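Customer ticket, subject: "Can you confirm the structure for Large-conductance mechanosensitive channel?"

Message body: Hello, I'm evaluating your service for our small team and ran a test protein. I'd like someone to confirm that this is what the system normally returns, since I don't have a reference to compare against.
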Amino acid sequence: MFKEFKIFISRGNVLDLAVGVLIGGAFNNLVTSLTKNLLSPLIGLFVNSINLSSIKFSAGAATFTVGAFLDDVIRFLIMAFVIFLIVKGFNHLRDRNATAESEEEPETIPAEQAYLKEIRDLLAAQSTHSDQQS
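Agent reply: Thanks for trying us out. I re-ran your input and got the following:
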């Protein structure tokens, strides 16, 4: 079982995933700080509240924290936009590499196919020439 785990963990995809999770967690903390410490107070200036997450309203016994929800929406939009930019960048690089590879490799035809094409062209020329004589 240890051997199987060692093989599993040593695959490149698992290591890439682990690095992605760690970087994603750190990025999440950064976006949370950006939203909480910069964007929320800035938006709060326009709604007469210093802290956006403190905006609430109550209906009966229920309390609705609208500001906390808005913080989460802002955080989600920032994360989604950054992921969009990353995916778009990778797709652009992949497409550019695919185009470069297709330009580098000229289409090679096996010798047998080249001979068959020559024979076909010669036969077509002969039939055209004999049709013109008739």
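A couple of notes from the result: The chain is about 80% helix and 5% strand. The first strand starts at residue 57 and ends at 59. Feel free to reply with more questions.
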